[in-house]
Structure formats: structure tokens, C-alpha cells
Amino acid sequence: MSRSHYLPSRNTLSNMYQSNRETILELHLKDINEEIAGLKSGYIIVTDGRGKAHHLKLANARRRHVLKVAKEFDYEVPEQAA
User: Of 25, 38, 54, 56, which is the most exposed, with the fewest CB atoms less than 10 Å away?
Assistant: First the structure.
């Protein structure tokens, strides 16, 4: 992933046009879903000693956070992104 996995602040998101905000949320969800799929398939190999389960837990927490923020902005996440 070339982009940061940190979501912009709610204030920054609220000052954006709706289309830009939706694009950012979709891109973050796409990256997180790809990370989860890579961890599950073995494409992403964990070498920091913490284990795959730990990294899956973190990725799923980030995913829940993005979905929560999307809901706060009344954005319905497309089925393929959710």
C-alpha cells in the first residue's frame, strides 16, 4: 500500500466535497480489505513476531472504524466494499 492507512480527521472529512469524502472512504476500505485478504491467503507474510491473528485483528479494527465514520457521514458503503 502506498497510501497511509490513517484516515483523515472527521473535521477534514467534513470540509470536503461529498464525492471526495466517499472516494477516500472507499479507497481506505479497499486497501484494508486487500490487506485482510492478503493476510488470510498468505500473500502477506508477517515477520515481526506478533503473528497473523494480531495483524488481522488490527486490520479488522481499522475496517470497523472506517465503516463507523462512513455511517456518521450518511454514506452507504457499496456491498463489494463492505
Answer: 54
Could you tell me the pLDDT band of residue 2, with boundaries at 50, 70 and 90?
A: very low
Residue with cell 480527521: 9
- In sequence order, what DSSP letters do the residues of the chain get, joined into one string? --S-SPPPPHHHHHTS-HHHHHHHHHHHHHHHHHHHHHHHHTSSPP-SSS-HHHHHHHHHHHHHHHHHHHHHTTPPPPTTT-
Q: Sorting pLDDT into bands at 50, 70 and 90, what band is 76?
A: confident
